[in-house]
Amino acid sequence: VQLQASGGGLVQAGGSLRLSCAASGLTFSAYTVAWFRQAPGKEQEFVSHISSNGVSTTTTPSVKGRFTVSRDNAKNTVYLQMDRLKPEDTAVYYCYARAGPNYSTKTYHYTHWGQGTLVTVSS
Questions:
Q1: Confidence label for 111 from pLDDT (cuts 50, 70 and 90)
Q2: For 42-85, what is each residue's pLDDT tens digit?
Q3: What does the alpha-carbon distance between residue 93 and residue 45 come to, in Å, rounded to a whole number?
């Protein structure tokens, strides 16, 4: 089982990035996926989730209205569209997966995760 986050980079404040989380080795459509991020010197924080069937999503208040999560189960990929980026969005972004439709804001409730992708937003 492998999850691979990609799409990070350096962007100016107000810009956009789209992160991808590609999965292999699991029945992707049966897994809820969440995005977490870790800023320098801080703990990982929950950003967003999308349920296994894509019907249910949540986003943390600090990114609500700017970040949108989606998935394409045919491509075994979850996306995080990030618009109107702010310097405080600078972090390493990780995707996590767990079987079933429910999500958690705690990483230890997830069974699979991958290496993160770095997002740097300059002011």
A1: very high
A2: 999 999 999 999 999 999 999 999 999 999 999 999 999 999 99
A3: 10
Name residue 98's amino acid: R
The dihedral region occupied by 101, where left means phi > 0, alpha psi between -120 and 50, and beta the remainder, is alpha
Decide if 111 contacts 99 (C-beta within 8 A): yes
CA 74 to chain centre: 18
Q: Is 33 in contact with 18 (CB distance < 8 Å)?
A: no
Q: Would you state the structure tokens that stand for residue 96, as one six-digit string? A: 């996590």
91: Cβ–Cβ under 8 A, 6 or more apart, which residues? 37, 38, 39, 40, 42, 118, 119
